[in-house]
Design a protein that fits this description.
Elements lengths: L1 H28 L38 E7 L5 E7 L4 E6 L8 H15 L9 E6 L34 E4 L2 E4 L8 H13 L3 E7 L3 E4 L8 H14 L2 E2 L12 H7 L4 E6 L7 H14 L3
Parallel strand pairs: 3-4, 3-7, 7-10, 8-9
Antiparallel strand pairs: 1-2, 2-4, 5-6, 8-10
Helix pairs in contact: 4-6
């Protein structure tokens, strides 16, 4: 009997051992499927909006004031002739200084004062306007003083070198002066001509000295009404006197009259003397033209 019981127990132990081995083998061979995706996750940016500004808005662009400097040509001696542009509007207002170099240095000084004023950002240019200022059309003449500074390095009076009633020999006061070999024979004149034809100014203001008057422009005829209106507006704002025509002596090859021939309203502003820029009164006039001449 005892042998029988021992045999049964041995059989049970054997069966249990086999069962344990089978269970263990199944566990080792079992590969658990994962619930998680095997794809790589996208990295999260450091900034919650992707680094383009608060709230996902694009970063603001830097405002373009439209101020730039452009070289429009060179003098006879190779000095750059520069124009300073303010604003980006389609209507151009042009101011030219330094036509007669060291003879009228205050015209360049005034132009540079106007440039400094608008570069300071204290005043905005209307959206429909571009203000262009050439401070020194005759830099070679600017190197000299007195009457000698009136002319360029070829001894030509630039204000006798434009294609309006041009003559090779012009007059200044009682003195004969050179108008050049032909209209636009001088590099400075060509630089201004090309720039004027490029921008087609709605108004052009050319600074001279000295008389304290403003003149409209005309070529072989009467001044246009637009030129008269421009002269009146400038003179009224600045406190200068206007004259219908310069008749002290014959003028040939005049740049302002050439602009009239091309159809651009233009005026000659003659400062009161050869030293003072009369900045405040001329700034007032320029502000008036910029704000109100173009509707």
């Amino acid at each position: 009997m005892n042998k029988f019981i021992i045999g049964i127990l041995a059989l049970l132990v054997l069966i249990g051992g086999v069962a344990v081995m089978m269970f263990t083998g199944d566990e080792d061979s079992y590969v658990k499927e994962s619930d998680e995706s095997t794809e790589l996750e996208q990295p999260i940016p450091v900034e919650p909006d992707g680094g383009i500004g608060d709230g996902g808005e694009p970063l603001p662009e830097i405002e373009n004031t439209g101020n730039d400097v452009e070289v429009i040509g060179q003098s006879v001696k190779g000095t750059d002739i520069k124009v300073y542009n303010f604003g980006t509007g389609p209507n151009h207002i042009l101011i030219v200084g330094g036509v007669h170099g060291g003879y009228s240095p205050n015209t360049s000084d005034l132009a540079n004062q106007l440039i400094n004023h608008y570069e300071s950002g204290v005043e905005n240019i209307p959206e429909n306007i571009t203000l262009s200022i050439i401070p020194e059309l005759n830099p070679d003449g600017g190197e000299m003083t007195g009457s000698a500074g009136r002319f360029n390095a070829n001894n030509v009076d630039l204000n006798r070198n434009f294609d309006c009633e041009w003559s090779a020999t012009g007059v200044w006061r009682e003195q004969k002066v050179s108008g050049g070999d032909k209209p636009f024979s001088e590099t400075e004149s060509v630089a201004l001509k090309d720039f004027v034809q490029k921008i087609e100014p709605a108004a052009a203001i050319v600074l001279f000295s000295a008389e304290g008057k403003v003149y409209p422009s005309a070529c072989e005829g009467k001044p246009s009404q637009a030129s008269i209106n421009l002269a009146d507006m400038y003179a009224d704002a600045a406190g200068y006197q206007t004259e219908a025509e310069f008749d002290a002596y014959a003028i040939t090859g005049d740049m302002v009259n050439w602009m009239a021939k091309e159809g651009f309203p233009a005026i000659s502003v003659l400062l009161s003397d050869h030293q003072s820029t009369e900045f405040n009164k001329n700034l007032t006039a320029v502000q008036e033209i910029v704000a109100n001449y173009i509707e």
